[in-house]
From TrEMBL:
Lineage: Bacteria, Bacillati, Cyanobacteriota, Cyanophyceae, Nostocales
Cell inner membrane recorded as keyword: no
GO molecular function, one term: oxidoreductase activity
Provenance organism: Mojavia pulchra JT2-VF2
InterPro entries for this protein: KR_dom, NAD(P)-bd_dom_sf, Sc_DH/Rdtase_CS, SDR_fam
UniProt-recorded name of the protein: SDR family oxidoreductase
Amino acid sequence: MLRQLYGKVALVTGASSGIGRATALALAQSGAKVVAASRRITEGEEIVRQIQEAGGEAIFVKTDVSKAAEVEALVNKTVDTYGRLDCAFNNAGIPSTGLLTDILEEDWDHVINVNLKGTWLCLKYEIREMLIQGGGAIVNVASIGGVVGFAGYASYCASKAGVIALTRSAAMEYAKFGIRINAVSPGAIETEMLATIPAHQLAQMIAMHPIGRSGKPEEIAEAVVWLCSDSASFVVGHNMMIDGGYTVH
């Protein structure tokens, strides 16, 4: 991989597994200093160890993105350690299942608080820092579920549709300040979240990907690195579908 982010400082939430883990490693390989954040300490520290053993720089910060004080502390720790924040990948999220009328209020709130409110909180504190330094690049994780509906996933789909709308609004507000904000919408990707889908539903979902397979976390990571780099300098407010053609239907 070209070291197109050499010397940059990149923050990744949900870095302990799946897409977040792959992206933290890819950002480090591209030359960035990485701040890996997640609620899972052991896995998060393991990512840092792997980056450091490969010759990169990284720290881990335990963070629950649904809590404003922890997100603010995460950004502050990033700046205290590395002096700035150039890129952010707001990836932390949780799945949900259940028919709409069966969803408990507390479960609805939990999904929205992590997936949507958590993305808003990350944007809030990341943008504040980027305004001070004069620019940056942010990528939010949405989903094909934010573009098309899935029966049994109402709260998840609603949260991800919200992330897409939030991304567009934020991009319009801060592009003039040199802050590029975009989103990626993965299809079926080989992660722990995908493993929560019943086998028959998963088979049907994969069959609807024209490419004929599920995706790999590294395939999302490559796109995130590009969106964070100067190569994507004219890309603003875009929701990039990385779905093997699923939404072409």
